[in-house]
Fold each of these.
Amino acid sequence: MKAMPRWMIRTLMAALMFGLTVAGSFAEAEPGAGEVSALVSPLQGPFQSMTADELFAKLLEQNRLRDLRLQRYSAVRTYNVASDKGKIYAEDVVRVEYRAPDHKTFVISSEKGSTLVRNLVLNRLIESESETSSGQAHRDSSMTPANYEFNLLGEQNVGPYHCLVAEVTPRRMDKYLFEGRVWINTEDYAIVRIAGQPAKSLSFWITRADFVRQYEKIGEFWFPAQDQTLVHMRVAGNKILSIQHHDYVVNEDTNENGRTITSENRATPTR
């Protein structure tokens, strides 16, 4: 399979790292839960007098409480880089292990497609998430009042979930922050869906990069279900990164054989 040129891969990687890093900043939310209803309705009933600051505070507090109860989880991710015509450049299947408070490991279980794309895009995406899951990099991209402000727009359904919709504006121009919208479940104030674009241009070669993350609820916790980043490039057409998250095991010990990628030890992919 013919690989993309190196300049294209570097440009694509910048956009895909944005999509994964921004989406990965919101570690608890839901579904892969169906369609978004057509219209955002005005705030009604108990939410009519709610302010954006109150919604933000409820979201942060409920996330904090869920974090305290989440000790560990494992999941399988399928990473896929393709053109908008359906041509697949590379695919990795990866097992993710999380241990509280902020430790993640990634084990590649299968690979196919371009070795170059896997090395320069997928493996570096995995390393980037390992590096940003804790410490200053995590704080710099997290959903906090220091990084974002909310403008409450109204109410809307996402699949079976009734949500409050907020416009999200970054407080500074940063390539790891975004502008867009979040959908927050009215029952437990968890994020159901995120959609947006980078707050800062990623490259001359990228005219636009749009990402969507959807989530699913497992027990009392909310986890990513699907990510998609669509990268519009000036001379190379559109490229798509898709990540499917599945096979979650929550608060149980798990152990799988495989090849581990961390920021300190990047394994060499094989075909």
Note: The longest strand covers residues 237-250.
Amino acid sequence: MVLLAALLASLTAGGSEGGEADAGRGQVWVVELDGPLGPAVADLIIRSIADAEEAGARALVIRMDTPGGLDKSMRQLVREILAANVPVITYVAPDGARAASAGTYIAYASHIAAMAPATNIGSSTPVSIGGPPTPTPGAPPGDDGARPDGEGQEDADNADGRDGRPSTDAMTRKVINDAVAYLQSLAELRGRNIEWAEETVRYGANLRSSEALEKNVVDFVASSLRELLEKVDGTSVTTSSRTVTLDVADAGIRLVETDWRHELLEIITDPTIAYGLLIFGIYGLILEFYSPGMIFPSVIGIVCLLLGAYGLQMLPVNYAGLALILVGIGLMVAEVFTPSLGIMGFAGAVAFVIGSVMLLDTEAPGYRIPYMVIGAFAAASAGLTLFALGAAVRARQQRVVTGHEGMVGATAEAMEDFSEIGYVWAFGERWRARTLTPVRKGDKLRVTDVDGLTLIVTGE
């Protein structure tokens, strides 16, 4: 438990296990964002920014190829980029890469944004609301009938479906407007295209690298990292505390490598693994309560529960879903101890499945629990409940017989020859016995009655 506490403390502590401060001085640091943006990747990039500042790096490059990610992780990373004292360069690469959704916000927040040829940027509509609005019939491509200045928005909000568009509720408008304002504020800070920032959020607009450069969405297009450093050399950027003229044309390049902390975070913040750890932890504690003194289930249960809880608290958890999972497990356990003809067990299984589906409040790519996993856990939980319930029913149906009634009908073995009174071996000990017929040593006898401390026996 002490080791576990130390492990969790190290996860929440700042800093990293980098080398000496001078190790990266005069270099350009490169950190990869390859795949969905989640807590583990955001933590690695944030720590890399801090380490690059401390080491005196000339700049930090985020080489990015992402379909998007979690809003919470994106906003944490953007805040750190805006507060950074080291110039942060976002580079959408290699060829064929994309900076979709959360990647667009990161590019807009960076001091310099660049793309490789054959890459694209955009599609920044918050996915949690179901994607971009449905275009109005007859409208030009990319036009959904609403206007950036808000004209016609009230009609769109109150649409009843007669024009083919779904009605838009207040929450959707709030999410869209918040995302638009957020991206536009980043565009205004970095001097980038404000109008397109609204288009990519409201309509899911996308640009290839050449268009992005032409429309002032990015600052440079470069085929390689070295070419990018040569192009940005001499560019002045303003960090949180100073204005820096980049001197990176001949700088050495240091690739930031992942460490044990990143690997551990990546494992326990995987939704499927965090969900499994939570369930295993709960069942481990239930087993310990059912059979006190086993120790092993409680230790494993506590470890799994803590790791699962730590992973889930870094994800967008729907606490109503979490509550339904706990209620569902509680009902299935209660069914074993207080059989209700399966009513509580069935209700528990339903609550467990619904809660599992609701558990993560996001549609971000890579951050949903697969239905197959939910089904497997639900089936396993229901199966364990049925097995335990069947064992309990069988135990209740078995009549426990003790004392005189339990002794009658039992077998005994003659310890000597005798014709009336002698001794037999029964119930694991030596008994005085009486019989009406002679018996010989070793004969198998049956107890027909008990007279005080004397067994009445007869031959089998």
Note: Residues 371-397 form the longest helix (27 residues).
Amino acid sequence: MSFFVTGTDTGVGKTHTVVQLLRLLRSNGKSCAGFKPICCGDRQDAKRLLAASTHGLTIDEINPLWLKTPAAPLTAAQIEGVNIDIEYLLNAFRKFRARVDLILVEGVGGWMVPIRSNYFVRDLAVKIGLPVLVVAKNRLGCLNHTLLTVRSVQAAGLRCAGVVLNRPVGDNDIAATTNADILATILDVPLLPELGPEIAKFSSEWSRFWGSSG
């Protein structure tokens, strides 16, 4: 099954999660790719997705809109004088989806990042229509940000397929050591472990998740 991957914030590990999933899927013989509709600033995220995806794709297929300003798409577009064409992004997604069996769409920043003045990442995800994976950073504030994002996904009429909790290196404070247990008791969606670069196969949690997702 394909997914839209969003974050509770920027810098929470969306690209890391997508890259690891793509590597694992490909190691299991799947034709799959990452799709980053919008990049702001550099294009490193899209390059990492390209490297992890099925061969034969191009960077412009992976990432159809590249804004050079490192800011939210609305801000970057205003600075650069660009009119973001939503239908262009959706058409690029439809063409790209026909190239592979499984696609992981990575949003830009968090769930409510503005793309246009009245159009947000949430709205793009609704148009794309895939189940949503939420990526969160395991730190103080994680509980609030995760619950707000999950409930907003569900309120938008989309299925929240699960939450991926990434732990910052060396962070062992009380929040980081208790967030997973608390989220497991208050979420009504699967809580999934971080995918580290050394993992060569799906963990039991991910295996159950992927099996139940089709």
Note: Residues 3-213 form a domain with the Rossmann fold fold (CATH 3.40.50.300).
Amino acid sequence: MLADIAVLPGDGIGPEVTAAATAVLRAVAARHRHVFTLHEHPIGGAAIDTTGVPLPDASLAACKVADAVLLGAVGGPKWSDPNAKARPEQGLLALRKALGLYANLRPVQPHAATLGAAPIKPHLLAGVDLVVVRELTGGIYFGDKTRDAAGASDLCAYSVTEIERVVRRACALARTRRRHLTSVDKANVLETSRLWRDVTTRIVRDEFPDITLEHQLVDSMAMHLLAKPRAFDVVVTENMFGDILTDEASMLAGSMGLLPSASLGDGRRGLYEPIHGSAPDIAGKGVANPVGAILSAALLLRHSLGLDDEATLVERAVSEALDAGVLTADLSPYRAASTVEMTAAVVERLCAPCAVSELRD
């Protein structure tokens, strides 16, 4: 297979973890005789420093013609002024909007070797396997914003079409899993949530009658997600609720550094990134956990390139490395592997010595 992949390393630990993910992609290409063309472009703070804007036209143009986009992270103290005209997160939001990526998939499947790193009791985590589908281009993050000397406002707005398409995506995913969908809203208070609940109920009833649907209020969901995480299969929710709940769900896995995400639209092109931020406090120290970025590359193989077998091999290689006790500092400070060591452990299990050599050069 020939594939063009845009790589946006971003800020902080972004360049370190994307280097790990690209090493894994090269290993997959070498093993299976694919040709992946990887080319880097700036985004976020790094782009502000060099071009004055968080998403340069050239970066966006490259992403629009690529088969898939791999992102590291954006942001950091250098660009943290919320009143600044150009901010790193603007680049990411604009990219998602421009590519029409409205569904963010965040799988959570704790590994046995990392249960001890989670703040949740291990017996609650065994067997957890859920995916949160977060609506990505609507809601309060994209609504009209006002501010004057007397106050400020942020508009939360959703159209029927925006809700329908993300619910359909979540239902289609549930059909490949355990056929159970949990829709999260705040319908006892918010009109947008009442619309969300009505549309979700209709879509499931009329188009996916084989799917079992339950509704949860976001505050009770925050509790149940920690108290009984095995009860959930596919969870669909609006933008801000999904942002908050997926960070909470990362604690089920033991570390934010372990979890990947895929942002998808109607076509095959997607944006793939670990769920963590730029972690400027550890940037450049070689200790960042690359697993979230590597598993994001696996999602890229599966969803944008249609290479499900190769994606499964990457996921298996990560699992085998963790089984072997290769753990970064966020998981085990007593025998911590570096970013490069963790990546090499995964690449070696993909049987591509050339990729290991490239990583160490």
Note: The radius of gyration is 20 Å.
